[in-house]
Amino acid sequence: MADTTVGIPTVSVTVNGVLRRGTPEPRKTLADFLRDDCELTGTHLGCEHGVCGACTIFMDGEAVRSCLVFAVQAEGADITTIEGLSAPDGTLSVVQKAMNEAHGLQCGFCTPGFVVSITALLRDNPDPSDEEIRQGLSGNLCRCTGYQGIIKAVKIAAGQSVDANGKAH
Amino acid sequence: MTDTLAAPTANTGGARFVGQRVQRREDLRLVTGHGRYTDDVVVPGMLHAAFLRSDIARGVINSIDVSAARQLDGVVAVFTGADFNAEIREHWVDFEGPGGDASPFRVLADTDVRFAGDPIAVVIATSRYIAEDACELIEVDIEPSTPVIGADAALAADAPVVHAGRADNIAGAIPAAADPVLDEIFANAAHVITETIDQNRYLCVPMETRGIVSQWDPFNQELTVHISTQGPHGVRAYIGRALGIPENRIRVIMKDVGGGFGQKMFMIPDEVAVVLAGKRLGRPVKWIEDRRENLMSGLHARDDRMTVSFAVDDTFHILGVKCDLIEDVGSFNAAGSSSIGFVGLLFPGPYKIPRVGFSAKAVFTNTCGRCSYRGPWMMETAAREQMMDIAARRLGIDPLEFRRINVITSAELPYTTAAGLVYDAVSIDGSLEQAVSMVGYEAFRAEQAAARAQGRFIGLGLGLYVEPSGIAMGNMSSEAAIVSISVNGDVTAVMSSGSHGQSLETTVAQVVADRLGVDFERVTVVQGDTAATPFGPGTGGSRSAVILNGAASQASGDVRTKMLEIAAHVLEAATDDLELEAGNISVRGTPSKGISVTEVARIAYLRPQELPPGMSLGLESHARYTPNAPFTFSNSCHACVVEVDAVTGGVKVLRFIVSEDCGVMINPDVVEGQIAGGVVQGIGGVLYEEMAYDMSGNPMNTTFVDYLLPTATEVPIIEYGHIETRSSTNPGGFKGMGEGGAIGSPPAVINAVADASPTSSTGRSSSRCRRRTSAPPSTLLADPAE
Ligand code: FES
Ligand code: FES
């Protein structure tokens, strides 16, 4: 099989705090490596061409589209996927909790990417304006929510008070 | 909550959970990355499929050479139409039934290709990467010919036929009926206004593409299919007929599904090919559609043109309308995807239009087939609401005034439309006035005039409609629920249809908890597995609030009745004197005298001697429910405010208001989420999204770089107004509303852009907007010819 994973590891990455080694083909994307080899299927593929943001993960602290990175390029990297953002007992992160509170998801397919992007956004800008929130989310697509609940979730996670329509006060 | 078992309205009023913004229980797994979508399913020994597709819209296949592909290391098999097409025994879906006007169908293109994206061969390999490599090694010789692109080409006198063997390109037609009364109305009307309105082709675009994992077990003669679908029972029945496998040897599982919007209502040939391949090889096969495939060949939507004439009297009352619709349904359109019947039926919508003449044609073209996208018939609203504005301006009155003159008022209910539909529990004028008051219509007109004086162009558009939710006919007539309380007092509701984003695990639990008088946390909803659930048509047609919850309510009501009878027997009280609340049954006025639901359940299963004489054991009910009308009408009004950049033509949506009456709301968060999602799809369809073909039949928008979905930067905050007029069709008083957002928003946006245009209120009738094909984003042009 051409994508066999036996042999000398060509990639070692830390994923959610655990060292993972593998021998992905050079052309295998990091997204596929995480999903297939690491069995972390929370990273979703909505386009595989870098637009939808569903595959967003943290790589060395940066929010990155894992469909645009080859696994071999991640050699030595410290990666956090959506699975690494909640506690093992299911306790949600602030952003995850806010998504639930604000009805920020319906089908949930886009959600892992949004949670990672929002986490990055609030880390870099803990009190974003409406405009900054929208800009910060513009690299992630959602087809279900019309973004209303997602924007509200960012505001809740940032500790801003919001009214029923999601306007911050 | 207190109510007696006789009360049919247990889900409202003092309900503890219905009406509350209960947070979704789906979310825990979905926000943490532990959902289970089709691509997350891994089966030992699983192979992967990839399709070779035609990049030519129309042509004869001279030869297909798969030998090099077969030899590639890792390739297990390559199949073509010659291998599969004769395998299909029967091709029809439950929705149409046998002998219906079945859409053209074949598994893989064999003699000729009929659209760019038409699947020609499927490669099965040990990885998706290898399967895709092998597709490149297949040599196909196609002799191209001029494709039929666009409805005009399809209807041209010398048009080639898209489907060999058919006399023409007519997929369906409603001929104009002679109507001398209507002709008379038009001949004598003070005003006749005619316009032709186009709607561009735009698509469902669920964020999860299609996917299937098919496992044939030759030793048990059993097929297990995981699929991203809106309805697993439809998949099971279809495969059973198509492949000649008894339905009870097929298990179809739908776990988490990343959206459908109509596209995943029925199987497409590609999915059937995967099932056939897996069966032929005796090995599990997975296929995950990629985004290019989803956009190019995963089924399309919209693409309509309608010419509408209004006959109006001198007091601005509409006397009659004539409509002629042309739908482009592409080549291999999905079952039920042509909406010509519904468009004519629903056209009068929210207005008193005494007489309607309607004719229509659906035509085949060499493009991807059409499917039923969220409000498949919405051309009636898109065209009618644009026409209301166009007519108003030509008549010299404000579009709001024209609507007020013609709207069906609550005082006129029940109202029977020209097509014979009866509205009894709607608030059409109420939602119009609520939206108008929320947007501040009069103040806006002043603001608009002031802005114009400064050279800024802002506009306001309305979209008013009646939504035929809970459609209950044919295979969609019913839903079922199996509700049981177990030995430990926990409640399970096994449902006939499941959610692909609609939050049914939460909302059904709200309804069941209220009906049974137990805590929400004690209710679990089971869905999406044909091995566990009774037959259901699948989630679509805004049906779940009405029909699925009707079933949940009915089954829960049976269980409740039985619980109260057991409690009455144990407590030596009359059932009428019992109160059921928070998991406890007590005698009214004597709170100390009571029994828990758990204790009742234990009696029902473990201590039969304590049951009332003659009563059957257990606490469970299987109920199949149909509402008492084929439609449950909800109503809504959208109001959109835009600013148009006079230099670039760029449109910015400044405000968007929706007044919605979906009857009793089960969960306002879910209602508002459905509205918002639909509205933004409509904004996208008008301002950003278009699937265009060039004259050679090449699809121009097959990536997210070319097919532009709205992002968070393009959408306004959506403001909601709610009216709750109880429906009379079902015990909860619920109405569906899942499609409405996508029905009302397109005309509201278009009307707003037209209203912003410099000539719109100068007495000249420039209220018409036309979208340039393949326009840059946000470019709508007021038609200069007007
Ligand atoms: S899957 Fe990576 S951006 Fe869409
Ligand atoms: S919740 Fe379905 S795509 Fe975002």
Explain how this protein is built.
Chain A has 5 helices and 5 strands, in the order ββαβββαααα. With 169 residues, chain A is α+β, with helices and mostly antiparallel strands. Helices cover 27% and strands 24% of the residues of chain B. In chain B, the strands form 8 sheets. Chain B has a 7-stranded mixed β-sheet. In chain B, strands 7-15-14-13-8 form a 5-stranded mixed β-sheet, sandwiched between helices. In chain B, β20, α15 and β21 form a beta-alpha-beta unit. One FE2/S2 (inorganic) cluster sits at the interface of chains A and B.
Topology:
The complex is a heterodimer of chains A (169) and B (786).
Chain A: E1 11-15, E2 18-22, H1 30-37, E3 56-59, E4 62-65, E5 78-80, H2 94-101, H3 111-124, H4 130-137, H5 148-157
Parallel strand pairs in A: 1-5
Antiparallel strand pairs in A: 1-2, 3-4, 3-5
Chain B: H1 27-31, E1 47-53, E2 59-65, H2 67-71, E3 75-80, H3 81-84, E4 112-113, E5 119-125, H4 128-137, E6 139-144, H5 151-155, E7 170-174, H6 180-188, E8 191-201, E9 211-217, E10 222-227, H7 232-243, E11 250-253, H8 269-281, E12 285-288, H9 291-297, E13 302-312, E14 318-330, H10 340-346, E15 356-364, H11 379-395, H12 399-406, E16 415-416, E17 422-423, H13 428-439, H14 441-453, E18 457-469, E19 479-485, E20 491-495, H15 504-516, E21 523-526, H16 544-571, E22 578-581, E23 584-587, E24 590-596, H17 597-606, E25 620-625, E26 632-644, E27 651-661, H18 668-687, E28 718-722, H19 740-756, E29 769-770, E30 781-782
Parallel strand pairs in B: 1-12, 10-11, 14-15, 20-21, 27-28
Antiparallel strand pairs in B: 1-5, 2-4, 2-6, 3-5, 7-15, 8-13, 9-10, 9-12, 13-14, 16-17, 18-26, 19-20, 19-25, 22-23, 23-24, 26-27, 29-30
The complex binds FE2/S2 (inorganic) cluster (FES) (2 copies).
One FE2/S2 (inorganic) cluster sits between chains A (105-111, 142-145) and B (207, 258-259, 501).
